[in-house]
Amino acid sequence: MIARVTLDLALGRDFDYAVPPELAGRVSVGARVKVPLGSRQVLGCITALLDSPPARPLKPLIKVLGTRSLLTPPLLALARWMAEYYVCPLEVVLKTMLPEAVRREQAGWRARLFVQPHPASGPLPRLTRRQLELWQLIEERGGLPLQELLRLTGATAETVRRLEDKGLITLAPRIAERDPYGAEDFLPTEPLPLNTAQSRALEAIVAALTPATPPPAAAAAADPLRGEGRTFLLHGVTGSGKTEVYLQALEACLARGRGAIVLVPEIALTPQTIERFKARYSHGPRRTLVAVLHSHLSAGERHDEWHKIRDGRARIVIGARSAVFAPVEPLGLVIVDEEHEQTYKQEEAPRYQARDVAVWRGHQEGAVVVLGSATPSLESYHHARRGKYTLLELPERADGRTLPMVRVVDLRQEVREAGGVPVFSRRLREALAARLERREQTILFLNRRGYASALQCPRCGYVAGCPRCSVALTYHRPEQQVRCHFCGHTETAPARCPAAGCGHPDIRYAGLGTQRVEETLRRLFPRARIERMDSDRLVRKEDYRRILGEFRAGQIDVLVGTQMIAKGLHFPNVTLVGIIYADLSLHLPDFRAAERTFQLLTQVAGRAGRGDVAGEVVVQAFTPFHPAIQCAKRHDYAAFYEQEIEFRRQLNYPPLTRVALLTLRGRNEDKVRLTAEHLGRQLDTLTTGLPELIRCGPAPAPLTRIETFYRYQLMLRTRHMARLSPRLGALLDPFLLPEGVTLTVDVDPANLL
Ligand code: ADP
Ligand code: ZN
User: Fold this and answer.
1) Considering the entire predicted model, what is its pTM?
2) DSSP labels for 239-281?
3) pLDDT per residue as tens digits for the range 519-557
4) Segments in the chain below pLDDT 70
5) For ligand 1, is residue 239 a contact (CB within 6 Å)?
6) How far apart, in whole angstroms, are the C-alpha atoms of residue 418 and residue 743?
7) What pLDDT shows up at residue 35?
8) Atom 10, ligand 1: residue with shortest CA distance
């Protein structure tokens, strides 16, 4: 037998090895193996097993890692599709699919000291009160890891040893699964009675779920009657009860013997969200049903969570982007919450879009896919309009509350009246004062951190720019620094204009950031309790939790923040949301600028009025009549879609086409430009067979220079990316790049800058 192996090294091809007889029983497609390569030993993954005799003598496999294959056949098929579609080597895709903690050779379970009670015999010996408390807990839990016992009780290991001396317990190492949420108790929740719209959505989803047919994987491949898998777009305004629909759909999926994956954006993986899912499954044996995968887990925790899934003990996986690869078998349901979020796109190879991967995987494995959002991506809504996805609507808030009243303030008018750009319009100031008076809470949103967006000399026009990137430096007042928000370059803020021959002492700060909002706020409302939340302020995740905790407990009146506070948070006492500059994201050179603005405004506005008091939103804008702002004001997604899709249609942008963005990067600008031009001529040969292919560029990227690298772009647009991708791969494979120039291909890019 021959094993075909994709190595972890980026070699761009597979290698064949002989399977020695002693390993024959242990090899399978998807298994991790160690193989010889030259004089080295490297790790890889079996991607095929062939029965034919080898044409030439082959080196044998050295070792099979672990007891079972890590990749299921459907996941391997998914990897192949991704490699082709995203124009990326298979080994890079496989690396992304298996977490590092699982891939390592010595990856394994960890033995921990475990406290085990002895069955009670006769009366208890004399114990101190402390010892008695400990003993009772140990007995009640029937044993638990020592660390957990110490954490729960605050006792010392010494006290536990005493109990051992008295013969009440034994302490011994035992393989203990690391449960990242083991220390937390979740209050169980029961399914809520659904309203009409929710019921209708749930029924449609449940009707599409098909029972697992054992043995699952083989049957799925052979049975022509298997469920094809269907994709639903659940469009529900914020607070419409989408999560309750997900929870009940998950229940139905489990009842059919299938597992499920729930994807949420990384930023939404707050304790609050995880709790909502964990709490439904927190009773007794169901406790292990939910596994969580996200970037804050330790390698050990990730290893254990992953194997809980692979072994089938965990049946529901909740996680960020890469959880779409969780080895759930058989897969019944994939939920992608906040499906419009940009974080579903990975910005390094493989540059996959997890939402699209979910749809593809669902289709392959006969699973139902539910994409949920209050502001669906134009892509998904377009598919729904054309019948490719089934549209489910939840038009009202589930708790009977009304959507917040949105007022748009024309900042141009304020400028005329105030003679400068105010941070707070009169309307927002008054609304704030009223909230402070009534002891209600306010969220102020500005999607720019720092104090001022630029440092400018009013005499000579000098603007402090990053020496490594083509952007202005942002002024950070508490630190008296200017910083580049792209590369992190930092300098001391100059006291006078540094331009040669100028030296003007009165350098100005243009534009504003969250620091300045906070400062102005403190001046206007000196007695208010104010906190700021952005990535400058929150270096550690404990800060994030602490501030949210204080805000929830009512110890903060006003929370100022960037998009960190825009999403997923649910605070009943917030009755006012202020958006300082709504146009900030509107004029970026990206065809999705309006879509992003509409989404952001709607999401931020959705933070208001989640409790008993109706919410109010004040939106300050320089272009108050822009459709993105007006439609957000009226909570009218459909109207926004109609006018935006027209714009995309006229310009042949997604979702009417798909984009492949090729970026060349290097320190020598001439070399980069010449390579881009050469590549452009090569790309012209692709048009045969793809007559509608549109090619733009080469042109300097909107942010031409980043971290001292010049970047040039070529954009291809086609209605048939599945046909373009393999041809692009074939064309680029032999394409030789000059030294110092790199090329990246981004299919369906989320970001054009
Ligand atoms: P979404 O995920 O759409 O933003 P949520 O699931 O957070 O909405 O629901 C908003 C609020 O409405 C939550 O407090 C939730 O408990 C409540 N809720 C959801 N469904 C119902 C229902 N059928 N009846 C009453 N309250 C509900
Ligand atoms: Zn920079």
Assistant:
1) 0.82
2) TS-HHHHHHHHHHHHHHTT-EEEEE--GGG--HHHHHHHHHHT
3) 999 999 999 999 998 877 766 667 877 888 899 899 999
4) 10, 67-68, 105-112, 120-121, 174-187, 212-229, 268, 282-288, 538-541, 567-569
5) yes
6) 50
7) 92
8) 239
Q: Is the peptide bond before 655 cis (omega within 30 degrees of 0)?
A: yes
State in Å: Cα 279 to ligand 1 middle.
15
The secondary structure of 653-709 as a DSSP string is -TTSSEEEEEEEEES-HHHHHHHHHHHHHHHGGGGTT-TT-EEEEEEEEEEEEETTE
Cα-based distances in Å from 624 to 224, 402, 545:
55, 23, 35
| Residue type for position 174 | R
Which residue do the tokens 């494995």 mark?
A: 365
Q: Is 240 in the pocket of ligand 1 (CB under 6 A)?
A: yes
Rounded CA-CA distance 264/568 in Å is 10
Q: Which residues pair with 406 in a beta bridge?
A: 617
Place of tokens 């300082």: 580
Q: Which two tokens stand for residue 92?
A: 């890079």
Residues linked to residue 262 through DSSP beta bridges, in sequence order: 318, 335
For residue 418, how many other CB atoms are within 10 A of its CB?
12
CA-CA distance, 557 to 574, in Å (whole number)?
9
Q: Which atom of ligand 1 is nearest to the CA of 242?
A: 3
Coil, helix or strand at residue 399: coil
pLDDT for res 179: 65
pLDDT computed for residue 222 by the predictor = 40
191 lines ligand 1 (CB under 6 A): no
- Which-ligand-closest: CA of 484? 2
Closest CA to 237 of 358, 378, 400, 441: 400
